[in-house]
Amino acid sequence: MTTYSYFPGCSANSTGISYTKSADFVCKKIGIELEEIPEWCCCGTSAAKLTSYDLGYALPSRSLALAEKLDASRPIVAPCAGCYAALKDALVYAQASKENLEHVRDMINMPYEASVQVMNLLEVFSTQEAKDALQQQITKPLSAFKVACYYGCALVRPVEVCKFDDPEDPQSMDTIMRLAGAEPIDWSFKTECCGAAQQMAVPKPSRVLIERIFQNAEANGANAIVTACPLCWMNLDMRVKAINKERAEAGKPAFDLPVFFFTELLGVALGGDAKTLGIDVHFQPGAPAFIDQKVKESAQIEEERKLAAAEEARKLEERAAKLAAKKQAKAEDVHSPQGGEQ
Amino acid sequence: MKIVDLTVIPADDRTAVAAIAAEAQVNFKDCYQCGKCSAGCPMVQGMDLMPREVIRYLQLGKVQEVLNSKTPWVCAQCGVCTARCPQNVDICATMRAVRHAAKDAGITPVREADVFEDEFIKNVRAHGRSNEQYLAMKYNLRSGHLMQDVDSAPAMFARGMIGIATHNIDSRDEVSALIDRVLQNNGAAKEAPKGGDAS
User: Fold this and answer.
1) What number does CATH give the domain B11-109?
2) Which one, A14, A43, A47, A318, has least CB within 10 Å?
3) Whether the predicted pLDDT of B192 surpasses 70
4) CA–centroid distance for A81 within its chain
């Protein structure tokens, strides 16, 4: 059992409820405990940084100091990519110099050592311990799922802050999905921006960002998009309806790709049902039906694979038996008067 | 094509560029105008200057063009420009620094972006946490885009994603005091004379 200090983030109980529910389910299944940091506050995200650099460091640092108070020996896990980036950015800043640390202490007016590590949820599931536990617990491999793993910006950028996966072609989510039996597709929009908060402030130029992500995932043969960020998820799952409407007016076909959190699909592979995992509250109403359909297809594929494997084993056995019979015949031949002169 | 007079760059403009460079910790002369930032920028379709052009104007000391540009306000802060810059110019941080400088000069070329950040911080200041439903509501009221995203609200309510109740933390006074303290200190620092020329 590994325990982490838990920073849920502001969307955990609202638009990101499916992420929270499914992460809870999967963590419990594989023996990861999340203890919420008491009195954590909003990380400020890009809004704080755009208001003032200092505010961008001070807001997340307050929660980092509270996590130290809770238990300085364990890492913090922040499932939301935006929170993760803000917390880690503030941590890296305070660790850079004594002056920076002193400056942060002054701003937050609390004891603070900048000693607690910050992790995102993909990192937690990438540990050997978690991978081993997942492998043991998977009962429904996702064999019919062809997923476009969408990482977005904040998990990998700024590069010198995140330092967790390749900034252009990250692999952590792909590896986790493969472990669950799914097939991650190769595509070009893994770390492209979804537009984040600009979807509200400057919607016109921002919409096309979402459209391109769907387009590229579909063109590369995905049947679902998978995210590790509640803001990315909401932008994609909620706004595709309006995009499809515009596409219909322009005579273009609608996108038909459900968007999931990686924890939801892991939860399915671990035997969780749609309601427990929060899949029933998606904006795209087809998500639960898609899961049912693909789980059935996956079971069928697994059955076919088993039959094929059994057939293969039978053939091998047959061949081995034939070979053994031949050897025997040869050996008998050797022992016969003509062959056995020596 | 616009004619740019490079024979006269006012001293104030040079100082303003130096302040932006200092805040973003960038030496604009590092940029050799390869354009990789602009090729990878997902938001260029909404910009009046390419990110590369913003850096070019700053290299030339033409700060007014940059302060009046929509580009830093349309920027989504995704950081792909900085990640790909072969010269390690932090373009993303430059966009932030330009926004701060423009706002200080009373210029907000994309009012909506300014209103959004402002309402976001007010929301956190009041509750300690961000309450998405009220943020969206206040943003719509202040920006004048009354019906934006309203069609998504019933689905969110019906599914229990959002409600009337706000998420508050007990120590929200601490958070509001922290925000006030930091912003007041920032204001005081801006009044003080600035030293150093980073460009």
Assistant:
1) 1.10.1060.10
2) A318
3) no
4) 11
